[in-house]
Predict the 3D structure of the following.
Amino acid sequence: MRSMNQHLAVIVAIGLLAPAAARAEILEASPGDDIESMINGLGPGDELILHGGEYTLNERFSFDIAGTEAAPIVIRAADGEVPHLHRPNANQNIIDIDNAVFVVLSGIEFSGGSAGVRISGATNLTIEDCEIHDTEDVALRANDSGVTYDSLRILHNHIHDTGGTGEGMYLGCNNDGCRVANSLIEGNYVHHTNGPSVSQGDGIELKEGSHSNVIRDNVIHDTGYPCILTYSTVGNGRANVIERNVMWSCGDHAIQSAADATIRNNIILGSNADGLAMQPHQSGAPSNLVVVHNTIIHPTNDAISLRGTTGSVVIANNALYAQSGSAIYVNGGSLGEVTMVGNAGVGGISGFDATFIAGDISADFVDGHYGGAPPIDLFPAAGGALPGAGDPAYVADDDFNGTPRGGVADIGAYAFSADGNPGWTIAEEFKGVTAAPADGDADADGDGDGDGDGDGDADGDGDGDGDADGDGDADGDGDSDGDGDGDSDGDSDSDGDSDSDSDGDGCECRASGPGQDPACLVVALGLLTTAFVWRRLGR
């Protein structure tokens, strides 16, 4: 009996003396609290909840924090509330993210300042459900020299009314000076980057060297430069994917991409230049481009233009209606590298010998017109030129709504159904929820390469920034700057025991998730070990 008690004493002592791992905290803050210090004090698994109201920022506001994949840091709005970070002057950016690893920003409104959100370094950073507006420069930028921004997730943000160079998103650098990789830009609503003080004003600009990214399900309109602009990957990685976006009133081309992109299931209602332009710029020229199942309605100029081809370009199964230009315009380059099949619409093909199916805008859509903006319904009409008329060899897996195509070669962004459009109606708002590709790899071909063409490669190069000096800003240097938890005990609960619950037991054990308490696990393991040894000694 004495021996057994000695063993138990040793076990209990070990459990009591074992250093407790740092526990995740849930903190809360309100206007007037020093949220910059609170953010910089966050560690893996911590959560900072910001209550509604205006947080006025006068000095530089920055943070450098790191969570982990299993325990990310979350900075979010309180449920049903809108925290508003406002900078009343343009002396600084609204916030500077000096570095963020496995961090989530959610539900925060940003306004004022020079740039809105400047990201100087980040890996696995998520910015979601935020609003960035009325900035004196670009709204969201990730373009610090020498940096590779990996696995960003820019999701369902409302970006509008910018100034200065005016880009909604400026991602990467010219000439591969920095790059964004393996990232998802999805479901954002970007508009009015074309104010009187704006010198450029792209909607979403993805710079040279950026690769393996997906830009999808965004609504973009009223921009100063292209609504979506991508460059060459310069061999850094897989092609970028531009899919299921809708845009209109774009100040230049609607989509401009020189190389290394799969462009599919997009809808374009009009722009100041061409609908979709592929042309040489900076380091690249049109190659490794797959343009399939887009619907482009263009009152002026050409629906698709292709200049200076140097490598493989596929243009297939697109619905192209050019009221006063060509449906497809081709000029120069290696024309033997071009594949052009299954396209239909109005305006014909100029500069290339290929079959084009004649269409009629009034007969081919439920409510098609050349007005250049919603309301409009570009779902294929029964009996029109689009259902089943494309080339089966180039059918995408899904359509603009995320509806599986099932191998049927309906021309344009929608898969035809006699029951009508099952998805969102185009409007000045966020796009309605659509399905993600079934294979979960951000493409739609099942090979996991993100490019949608099934071959897993991304050769070729190109750029296409649409600005005058090729550097994406107005000063020629490639950038676009000008330059409390709510209670009294510090633990964000109400029992004063420094955990995150309210039962006074000093422990917040959870079944799973970022907030799981390692100290509680130590106690639980100790109790299980004690019980096991007790049984062994009792035999």
About this structure: The first strand starts at residue 26 and ends at 29. DSSP finds four helices and 41 strands in the chain. The two ends are 11 Å apart (CA to CA). Residues 125 and 176 are 21 Å apart (CA to CA).
